What does this fold into?
Amino acid sequence: MSSLVYYSSVSENTHRFVQKLGLAAQRIPLRPAEPFLHAMSPYVLLVPTYGGGNEGGAVPRQVVKFLNDEGNRGLLRGVIAAGNTNFGSAYCVAGDIIAAKCQVPYLFAFELMGTTEDVQRVRKGLELFWQRQSANRS
Amino acid sequence: MHAVKLIDRVQAINWNKLQDEKDLEVWDRLTGNFWLPEKVPLSNDIQSWATLSDVEKQMTTRVFTGLTLLDTIQGTVGAVSLIPDSLTQHEEAVYTNIAFMESVHARSYSSIFSTLISSREIDEAFRWSEENPALQRKAEIVLEFYRGEEPLKRKVASTMLESFLFYSGFYAPMYWSSRAKLTNTADLIRLIIRDEAVHGYYIGYKFQKGLELVGSQERQELKDYTFSLLFELYENEVEYTQDLYDPLGLTEDVKKFLRYNANKALMNLGYEALFPREETDVNPAILAALSPNADENHDFFSGSGSSYVIGKAVNTEDEDWDF
It folds into this structure.
């Protein structure tokens, strides 16, 4: 039912969050040399924001490549972003950028590898989100 | 005096051959974020400064001397002490950048002082910082590990400094900013806060890389050590916070901010957050001063779900996008 695609750099922060969620998830490959990921069903995308003063490079390059694929883009239903409030107005801006470019809802933002409360909210939120999605379709 | 260990021979650094891609990523991020205090029009805060009461001025001045002390430590001892422990040459180079930026931060506080504060007040505040037991203790705890012989503990102490110990001080300019005071000073501090985020993230990441190389027993010991150090530092921070903020009745508000940042320091080291949500519910005005984006707009899950937030138009000039 639910499908999750995520990116995590070698720091593994986002990967840890996904592990805590305990939901089936596919990881966008770290390096361009690895096999390209093609989404097969509707999914929510979970990405970290690369922190900086300017917004350039806020969305990890591998995520941009993944979304440049029309098939992948067409199945995207929502986005969740991680970040750090220390980056001020650029906090979790990867979520804003992807939501605006792909016209999907920005579902949730959390910091670094997420707290226990963040994990619970996302787990429950995703469940309801997918229920609503399938209700809308039928 | 502790001497930095110098290596016997040097190999020329090749940035085209990376052992850890994080080194280049962070190097690019840090150099891209480079700034100098001269670019912030601090003198626009002179009028605002004049509206503060004497107690408020004293608190603010003392906060900045405390921050100066920490940045001095991190610039001239802390980041430098990490260099000999590096796993890659590129890691060494990143630490030299961090050390330099910490010196820029320390330099920035003097710019604030010279713009806003009389030399008599500055002298008084520096004397206070040299005599305040909690501030001196904070410095001493961290310096002990910088001088020690345990590379991973050094990284823990350094991450604590970058991601936790600065924030009793950072609270004050965010507080003023939330009241539309000293807003240029706050802009400068936000640049420092941004830098510290990258520093804490990177040193914490290198700590985790180091953990991969030790046995499970040592790993457990380091975890226990990290949490006991955090408690020790936290207790000391509470004392320091009382010294600074009790006269203004802000101590409890600052403590939430401390615990919130202590959790982030732990996460940077790869550990779970310690303080529960009800103890880290930072005053929304302070959080908004830190990050205007950190509001509830991005919690679709907690709402009724009847309306979506489709991201606002954001500048996305990255050439990588194809659509």
